[in-house]
Design goal:
By secondary structure, this protein is mainly alpha-helical. Helices cover 89% and strands 0% of the residues.
Length: 142
């Protein structure tokens, strides 16, 4: 009788563990699908340079729906890497919208940002070289 009881308890514990694992896997799969859908949404916007004002209004509604789902449902289930990915695509969307709004008057914002980033990178490399030379000068022997 005790053997049957313990066997039944063991079977129930294993079953509960399997059910919990299936729920965790399903939640992870839904997060992955959500991220892929958001990535596709942002990628399509980035490629299209001929979006009209009306289309941007519709895209903004879709973006708000993605953001609402993220906040209310998926953020709690996401890993740090997944949150980082969502934020990366969210930023790309915002840059594209800003580029559209500002770009009409001042030229392509993303091109200007790339140029500024490139110049900053070159400056940081030079500063890093100077620091490296300083450290070698203190501790190195020729």
């Amino acid at each position: 009788m005790k053997k049957q009881f313990f066997f039944t308890m063991l079977l129930m514990l294993c079953s509960m563990g399997a059910i919990a694992q299936n729920k965790a896997t399903a939640a992870n799969d839904s997060v992955t699908i959500f991220l892929n859908n958001f990535k596709t949404f942002v990628s399509e916007i980035q490629v299209n340079d001929s979006t009209t004002e009306k289309q941007f209004e519709e895209l903004e509604l879709r973006y708000k729906n993605f953001n609402k789902l993220y906040t209310e449902k998926f953020k709690k289930q996401m890993t740090n890497d997944q949150i980082s990915d969502f934020t990366k695509y969210k930023t790309r969307y915002k840059v594209k919208v800003l580029d559209h709004k500002v770009g009409k008057k001042t030229g392509k914002l993303s091109q200007k940002a790339d140029t500024i980033g490139q110049k900053m990178g070159e400056g940081l490399k030079k500063a890093g070289s100077e620091i490296g030379g300083f450290v070698k000068g203190i501790f190195g022997k020729d």
